[in-house]
Amino acid sequence: MMRALDRKLFRDLARMKSQAIAISLVVASGVALFVATMTTYRSLRASEAVFYRQQRFAQVWSGLGRAPVSVARDIAALPGVTAVDARLVARAILDIRDLAEPASGLLVSIPDRPGHGVNDLYIRRGRHLEPGHADEVMVSEAFADKNHLQPGDSIPATVAGHRTALRIVGIALSPEFVMPVEPGAAAPDDRRFGILWIARNQLEALLDMNGSFNETALLLAPGTDEQAVIAAVDRILAPYGGAGAYGRKTQTSHVMLEEHIDQLRGLTLLVPSIFLLVSAFLVNVVLARLIATQREQIGMLKAFGYSNARVALHYLELTLIIVLLGVGFGVPVGSWLGRLMAVFYAQFFRFPALVFELEPGVAFGGAAVAVFAATAGALGTLRRVVAMPPIVAMTPEVPAFRRTLLDRIGITPLLSPAVRMIVRNLTKRPLRSGLASAGMALAVAVVVVGGSSADGFHRMRDVQFEAVQREDLSVALRHPRALGTARDFLALPGVRAAEPYRIVPARLLGRGRYEDIALYGLPDGGRLRNVVDTDFQRAPRLDAGVVLTAWTARHLGLVPGDLLSIEIRENRRRVVSVRLEATVEDPLGQAAYMELGALGRLLGEPETYSHVSLLVDPTRAPALYDQLQHAPQAMAIGIRRSTFDSFKSMSETSLDFVRTIVLIFATIIAFGVVYNTARIALAERGRELATLRVLGYTRGEASGIMLGEIAILAAPAIPLGLALGYLLTGAVAASMTGSRMHVPVIVSLPTYAFAVVVFIVSALVSALVVRRRIDRLDLIEVLKARE
Amino acid sequence: MGEVEVRALRGVDLELGSGELVVLLGASGSGKSTLLNLLGGLDVPSAGRLVYEGRDLTRARESVRTAYRRDHVGFVFQFYNLVPSLTARENVAIVTDIADNPLSPEQALEIVGLSHRLDHFPAQLSGGEQQRVAIARAIAKRPQILLCDEPTGALDVATGKIVLAAIARVNRELGSTTVVITHNAVIADMADRVLQLADGLVTADRRNSTKRAPEELAW
Asked: Is B108 exposed, middle or buried (0-12, 13-18, 19+ CB in 10 A)?
């Protein structure tokens, strides 16, 4: 048997159902987003961990010039090292059919049988290499897919100046190359850069490096001190041109993957919190209104002996039902959305297996936060319920208006009575009016955040590929060459300009920390490679000192004027000192820039260059590509346009997905806030409006007063929301910025405009719904009732 | 439970003359409010005809009835229905703003004797004062018809008399056809014409040979 008070609960709920649904939807959105992003995040972390563990992803790597395989035994003997791969790696220029420009390959030697002790491959199609079969390779899946390569296809390649043909037998994934980035490139370009795994003896022959290795990858026992191993490996490899050992935290693919996954964590906390904040606000205003209309009922209940706690509980129950409806809807939707997102990202990262489950902790966590937020929103109102003595509660609340500031300063005579009504109503409860505007501002802000996530990436991309890199083509040389020879490139077909530059791998030593960076030597007055920040501002002219990526400088606690210690990690390893001239918020990577001549003096060698940037006549590009593919000194070719396109499609795919989701939910917030604000205003002003209608005001005139009030609340929400959106964009960008990507805080004009349009449309739809209610106001009822 | 059609009025045939002060008497449920709603253009009859100055309002659209109320009808409600956020003057202005050739709010408030309370908000006025503001609001447009629904229902006797006096004065000075709904039979003495309603029918329709001033009434 249902008690009478419970019946009242459900009748009250039924009467306010559209408002209750609006609140439930906002709660559901918050919970769904929380559950979705949280499960996606955790599922990707778990999938990553499983992939790494099953494929025995290495923990320490080091490049080197050349060492006999026997040296690897010294490394294997180090305490904590459980497996060592002493392998050969080499760059190759590939001739892919259907691809006008040459592609780049990274050849990596592997054992000729499956089940590698370190960095094992996951075979997607075809088979593993077989002993004794010459010229077989396995190819990374992304590269194969982009270029429609199948087992059985053959790829002509230039390796160390030798022309050869490589036959594909399998398509594979490796934990080392989840995000394959060509050395020296700014972003993955799966069409132009691929990994080719080749039998050790094959690569030995191509490189003429029998019984040697030039890269090592190690697996460590749990609990091993990684830094100690790195130091020991460095010591062992120093005589062999060791380029410096490093752990996963600077392994390019791993770092990029981490940054992608970490972006989700930023969203996990920030966006759902906004929704729950808004739901708390909505609960607050709606409940306050309900209690105002039920003063007499509350007085009656108390007069009949219901305790304060029981009456307060009654209203808390009402709140909880609304919230739990939202939770009940939000958890399954969030779980479904989470699966959608996790599958999307797992395909994006090409994880062989997706670990997905809705953890009860996540669902309960979401529910708990939602209940907590709503209860917090209800608290003030519940306190008022408790404080109402029965007698006071039974006398109607008379809205006592007094002269306002506006009246005293003499503005009101200029306003029509309708406008005065609006102004006095809004200024009577300034806190609530302010909160209503703030709630609407949050809705605007969420749309801004949803849109601006792409803006930052677009700016990063535009700066990198339009201002930093201005060449058409960059050629990496096998060995640095004397500066004078750079002019030779001008003789190649279609080359209109050639600018040499130098890249030296280096380790920047800070206070107890270090960062591996690329040390650039750029020619004075060069145009094709520039040091530019994310506001398109060029760094001051390069001189003897270095200009450093701002993120790296902050990370190492360095400020301009400091003397830097840089360990040069090429050939002869040594530490040099140089002054930090300035820092630059450049978009991608970690780099230090110097003038080319100054770099030569710092290295104590004649001026050399390792790369050359070219401007090319596009009509003659095929002839140029053909020559470069056969040029023995060219190791790899980077094509700016191609990397740009790849970066664009990669970032847009994932950003559009996230943006769409955020936008859907932002629209719900905007509608939820505006609709509830309008409904409450209507409930409070319904009698006045009906009176005006009886007195001869038309429907349009009566609605005008009501909608004018909403418009006045909504108007400040727009600038406020845009400003708030900018601040939140900053918070999101801060959570996304890592060592490799420096996402600038950019909100484009179209993003702002879009937020305003979404908000205005939601507001108009809410207004129309309320307008229909005004049209149907019962004019006869108003003559009888005293509210 | 199905819908049951309730006939609030059955065969009421009534003609109100210009400038008449009519008191409509009847108990709760007698149909007097329904009649007032029809006269005020708030509702349309399900059967029969409603004609105002030769214009048929029987099937008038909402917008036509709104214009009728706006241009010709003044309303006084039992619970005043003032806008709490507007002062007395502004509550009247809300009607004069949309009327042709209205009195000024100050003139209207002068007629009901509230010249000294122009800038007070409803919460600062007594019940009788609030009702007089409501009358000022109703008459400011110089309505042809003034409809008063239990105007003294929420007031004490002394205040009620002041309010009735204001209504009588408006009827006299502006010549508005005035209908006062009440269940208080004493008030009938101030009318030109008294209608008695019971169970949806006009059971009596008489004219007072002598009208008494509201001040002389006692209940």
From this structure: buried
Q: Which residues pair with A547 in a beta bridge?
A: A582, A593
User: pLDDT (tens digit, 9 = 90+) per residue, B65-121?
Assistant: 889 999 999 998 888 888 888 899 999 998 898 888 899 999 999 988 899 999 999
Burial environment of residue A406 by CB neighbours within 10 A (0 to 12, 13 to 18, 19 or more): middle
> Do B85 and A424 lie within an 8 Å CB cutoff?
yes
Query: Which residues from B are below 8 Å from A when comparing CB atoms?
Result: 33, 37, 40, 42-43, 62-63, 66-67, 69-71, 73, 75, 77-79, 81, 83-86, 90-91, 93-95, 97-99, 119, 121-124, 137, 141, 149, 154
Strand pairing report for A212-220 and A60-68: antiparallel
Q: Which of B94, B120, B139 to mutate to test the interface with A (most CBs of A within 10 A)?
A: B94
Cα torsion A347, A350, A353, A355: sign: negative
State how far the Cα of A468 lies from the Cα of A700, in Å rounded to an integer.
58
**Run of H or E residues at A216:** strand A212-220
* Residue recorded with tokens 């062999």: A240
Residue of A nearest to B125 (CA): A400
Virtual torsion, Cα A422, A427, A433, A437, nearest 10 deg: 80
**What are the DSSP E strand ranges found in A111-153?**
122-126, 136-140
Q: How far is residue A269's CA from residue A291's CA, in Å, rounded to a whole number?
A: 33
Dist. CA A57–CA A248, nearest whole Å: 9
Residues A252-287: tens digit of each pLDDT: 899 889 888 887 776 677 777 777 788 888 888 888
